[in-house]
Amino acid sequence: MRKILIASHGHVASGMKSAVKILTGDVSALTAVDFYVDESDQTPVVEAFINSVGPEDDAVIFTDLLGGSVCNKVLTLQPEKHGITHVTGFNLIAVLGCLLSDEPLTPAVVDEVIATASAQLQRISVEPEAREDEETEDSFFA
């Protein structure tokens, strides 16, 4: 069984789960843990997730910031001892890539997903000439 946990500061994790639901319709493999939204400690939720992963499972934990407190809490729980891959600095492409991959989530497959997701992060802009061409009266009524 594929199991993915997303842990973040604030509501980023539940927001990511919401986006995945819109795009895939199925979030049964996802667990979202929002840290610091109230006074409760979410560490037991992460521990329960880690303990639920068996040897037959593919599991990944995503955290939002390398060196952030959520990432560091997950590190102290040593998910790798349970065969769980920990990825930090996630984006939607990375989560979808792991969720929808047909391959077992080996470290090599997760590295490929990370490379694809990283390539999607880039600055884009429309050249001023292109905007002027699009804004003519002829193109408006075309």
From TrEMBL:
Molecular function GO labels: transferase activity
Highest taxon above the source species: Bacteria
InterPro entries: Bacterial_PTS_sugar_comp, PTS_EIIA_man-typ, PTS_EIIA_man-typ_sf
GO biological process, one term: phosphoenolpyruvate-dependent sugar phosphotransferase system
Regions crossing the membrane: none
GO cellular component: membrane
Gene3D superfamilies reported for this sequence: Phosphotransferase system, mannose-type IIA component
Keywords: Transferase
Domain PTS EIIA type-4 stretches: 1-126
Presence of the UniProt keyword Transferase in the record: yes
PROSITE patterns, sorted: PTS_EIIA_TYPE_4 (PS51096)
Name the record gives this protein: PTS fructose transporter subunit IIA
